[in-house]
Every structure is written in C-alpha cells, then in structure tokens.
Amino acid sequence: MSWFSVQKYRKELVNDLCEAIKNGTAPWQRPWSKVVQEWPRNAFTGHHYSYNNAMKLYARAKRMGYTDCRWLTYRQAQDLGGHVKLGEKGTYIQFYVENGAVQITNAKKEPVLNTNGEPVYRAQWILKRYVVFNAEQISGLTYYVPEPPKIHAPVKKCEKAERILQESGAKIHHGGNEAYYNFEYDFIQLPKMEEFHTSADYYATALHELSHWTGHESRLNRNFWESFGKEAYAFEELVAEISSMFVSAETGIDQTKAHFDNHAAYVSNWLKVIKQNSQAIINAVKLAHQASDFILKNERAREKADEKKAS
Questions:
Q1: Where residue 70 falls among pLDDT bands split at 50, 70, 90?
Q2: Per-residue pLDDT tens digits for 140-183
Q3: 121-134 and 91-103: which strand pairing?
Q4: Which of 42, 99, 106 shows the shortest CA–CA distance to 68?
Q5: What percent of the chain has pLDDT over 90?
C-alpha cells in the first residue's frame, strides 16, 4: 500500500472518530445502557472486523446513519447477488497479509541459525487496502434483521468482574469520593460501590482505573507518566477508556451514559490529540487491546480450561 493510501485511511478514520466523539457516539462512548451493540462484520465471511477497521466502520456507520452492521467489497456484494447503488462511495479499510518468509540475519548480515544449525525465517507481511460498502448501500441483499437488544436485569455485583479485579493483583482501596490510579504508589482508589448511582457505573470506573494500572513500568510500561502535559494525559485517558470498553464487552458490564458524562471533560482533549496526530488513535486502540488482553488473561485461561473439561 502506498504512503498516500495509508495517510488517506488515517485521515478518514480520524475524521469519523472525531465526529463520533463530538456526538457522543464513539465506540467507547456508548450513550445508552443495558444494550449490546453489534460490531461491524463482513456479510460474506461472517467475521467481525477487528482493531482500527472496526472502529472506523462503526464510526462511519454512525456518521452516515447506517443501522446495518454488515459490510462487503464490491465483488463480495456481486457474489451474494447484490449491486452497489449508483453514486455510493465506499470506505477504505486495511489489513496486513502474510507474503512469504524472509531469512533472519544478524548485524553482520550473517544467517541466524537455530539449535539444529538450520536457518531461521520470519513471516513477511504487506499492507493491503480494500474498499467496502455498508449493506444499506447495496441493493439486492436479503433484509437484515438484527438480534433484539439483550436487556440485563439490574445486579448488585457481577461475579466475573469481581473475579477479574481480585485476580489482577491490583491494590484497590475503597473510600472517599474520588476515583483514580496512583502511579507512584501503585494503587487504585475508588469510592465504595454504594456511592455510585448503579453497580454498572462502579465497574466501568473500576475497569477504567485498572486499565491505567496495566501501564505501570512493571507491567506493560506505557511510560505516559513521564510525559507531562494535557496531550499526554488525554492520550492515556483515551487508552484507558477504550480498554475499559473492551473488557466491559467481555464481562457483560454495561457502560452507562452517566459514566461517560463523568469523562466529558476529557473529550475536547481527546479531539485535540487525535487531530494533531492521526497516528494517535491507531496507537491508542493498539495499546487498549494490550491492556484489555492483560486484564482478561486469567479469565480467558479459565474459560479455555472449562471448555476443555466439558469436551
């Protein structure tokens, strides 16, 4: 993919996300409660898009008013018997595709060998760009009926979320009326659960602070704390907010409008950071995935073990 294409992709992603943030509809700013939102997926393969592509398509759908979560390339639409409507413009997405292997060499350009004396190779990847269209831009497709929203009954405690917080090993103190992560002394401070409007607000806040906790030098070492200023702080807040959303999606914890209203002060700073550097949102999503993977590693291992036992 050319440098121009990469820059165009990033510009489109930034513009759509900035618009979504202004409207309070960014993927990590869901202004509704107790509804599971469907993520963008490819209608031909059935696979959900991941990382920045999902963010971009989600934001584009909100911006254009699409309610269908399905996306297709021009050829995929034809293969399903559909036709892209006249005048419709597609959305660029990008993937890294494996393209053979290259031999690894050392600083002296000598082949690196394994313990058996055999050359060591690594996968070679190239960046490819595709244009996709939302199903609402395509005629001739079967009508899409989304699953009805899942309504969760109010709960006082979430067993899975409690387990994740406890097994993380993070020092969590309760009391007072502030929620924050103390980097110097490596602990999380939260008000007591009964001080929150709902348990969902408590867990969303706890997971947000736990995401900050993963950035400590002894864990993922994000090092943002060494960079002072509003921009550095806003970037870390963006990482933590997206990570909290990812973890909440897996644990079934709703993120309510009240939770995001409490973070409203950061929105203008998020916009400033993203607009100044298009790479910022790319990096934020990547770091948020690392943080959420770190938080969920024990829970995922448990689920795999349970599946193995069941089989």
A1: very high
A2: 998 776 665 544 444 467 888 899 999 999 999 998 888 889 88
A3: antiparallel
A4: 42
A5: 24
| 149 in any annotated domain | no
Work out the number of other CB atoms within 10 angstroms of the CB of residue 255.
Answer: 25
Q: Cβ neighbours of residue 180 under 8 Å, at least 6 residues apart?
A: 188, 189, 209
Residue 244 sits in which domain range?
Answer: 159-310
For residues 172 and 165, the answer to whether their CB atoms sit within 8 Å is yes
Q: At what angle do helices 264-276 and 279-310 cross, to 10 degrees?
A: 110
Contacts of 170 (CB under 8 A, 6+ apart): 187, 188, 210, 213
End-to-end CA distance of the chain: 44
Element (H, E) at 92: strand 91-103
Total domain count for the chain? 2
pLDDT at 218 over 80: yes
3-state secondary structure of 49: coil
The strand order across the sheet containing 121-134 reads 41-42, 70-73, 121-134, 91-103
- Output the pTM of the full model: 0.59
What are the residues facing 119 on neighbouring strands?
Answer: 113
Do residues 166 and 236 both lie within one domain? Answer: yes
- Tokens 């934020």 locate to 284
The C-alpha atoms of residue 282 and residue 288 are separated, in whole angstroms, by 10
One-letter amino acid identity for 262?
N
pLDDT band at 286 (very low <50, low <70, confident <90, very high): confident
Amino acid at 131: V
| Residue 248 three-state SS | helix
Residue 111: other Cβ atoms inside 10 A: 12
Same domain, residue pair 119 and 214: no
Those residues with Cβ within 8 angstroms of residue 118's Cβ, 6 or more apart along the chain or in another chain: none
